[in-house]
Amino acid sequence: MTIEAVAPTGNGQTVCVTGAGGFIASWLVKLLLEKGYTVKGTVRNPDDPKNAHLKAMEGAAERLILCKADLLDYDALREAIDGCQGVFHTASPVTDDPEQMVEPAVRGARYVIIAAAEAGTVRRVVFTSSIGAVTMDPNRGPDVVVDESCWSDLEYCKNTRNWYCYGKVVAEQAAWEVAREKGVELAVVNPVLVLGPLLQPQVNASIVHILKYLDGSVKRYTNAVQAYVDVRDVAEAHLRVYETAGAAGKRFICAERVLHREDVVRILAKLFPEYPVPNRCSDEVNPRKKPYNFSDQGLRDLGLQCKPVSQSLYDTVKSLQEKGHLPVMPPQYQKL
Ligand SMILES: NC(=O)c1ccc[n+]([C@@H]2O[C@H](COP(=O)([O-])OP(=O)(O)OC[C@H]3O[C@@H](n4cnc5c(N)ncnc54)[C@H](OP(=O)(O)O)[C@@H]3O)[C@@H](O)[C@H]2O)c1
């Protein structure tokens, strides 16, 4: 069943995007401006050169307002959300340091929903959660299809010191709880590891996941699997989840496919043979980890079709070269 989109353009609508300068949020701001929305983007420092790319976007001069806000500053978030019809809450620490991760993620989620309720104009909040809030469950059988009903196990996240996933679970749970209490319409996007071209000048954590296989910093790949999706599809998913009436109250897994690390390095080595991509696994004893099955039916029902991972990998590397994070090798260094 395809759910009907009710608001195909943003003309006349103002929306807030938290953490606007981040990897995903930058693409979302770009898309919203293209669709005619006026965007109030929160950043921690509007004058930081790392946010200059936002000001240079088409439509930004007329319809992008940068607001200074930290996730721990309720008043600043309240001011940024004032007068908005929608909120995209993407800002979050991305770290495994428990102190830096958990409190800002949870408090930020609560504050954003409360501010949306207080503003009185917000029609829907779209919260960027993560697959990390979905799959970290050691008791899930190998044949279980991971879907939006799955939640990561908090004890397991704690015991494995995976504080990023722990923080994303408790932040998403806080968002659902406060939204229920305050009567705020909420929808959640749970992206898997996000790849693709960068708009922002600095390299974010999910891009480091690929950069490390190209710059020689990692000599062997791990015996592990990971699901991937393109950042442009993640931005589109957020927009569809916002604009589609039937998306309220639901979670949406945003994923293209699950690959073993061996598949990732093979694709990279084939596309870019000039880089020292590892060709041996660090674990030559245990059987090769198997990919899990997931359902992306929710976003398919909203009409989203994700780009193939090989294209995202290609575009990631090209973008890293263009932004000066990877040297472009002269032809004599390129293996045939
Ligand atoms: N990339 C992925 O693979 C992936 C996958 C699933 C979910 N997600 C989620 O998607 C969202 C965006 O991630 P991303 O990959 O785009 O990461 P990113 O580029 O690191 O962006 C994170 C943003 O959050 C902001 N932020 C962090 N702590 C903050 C605080 N205390 N107060 C205000 N702003 C704060 C950062 O601002 P500064 O620039 O000032 O630090 C930055 O703009 C996050 O919620 C993340 O958990 C990402």
From TrEMBL:
GO terms for molecular function: cinnamoyl-CoA reductase activity; oxidoreductase activity, acting on the CH-OH group of donors, NAD or NADP as acceptor. Keywords: Disulfide bond, NADP, Oxidoreductase. Belongs to the NAD(P)-dependent epimerase/dehydratase family. Dihydroflavonol-4-reductase subfamily. It comes from the Eukaryota. Pathway: Aromatic compound metabolism; phenylpropanoid biosynthesis. SUPFAM superfamilies: NAD(P)-binding Rossmann-fold domains. The keyword Ribosomal protein does not apply. Its EC number is 1.2.1.44. The keyword ATP-binding does not apply. It comes from Musa AB Group. Residues 15-252 form the NAD-dependent epimerase/dehydratase domain. This is cinnamoyl-CoA reductase. It is an enzyme of class 1 (oxidoreductase). Gene3D superfamilies: NAD(P)-binding Rossmann-like Domain. Signal peptide: none annotated. It holds the Pfam family Epimerase.
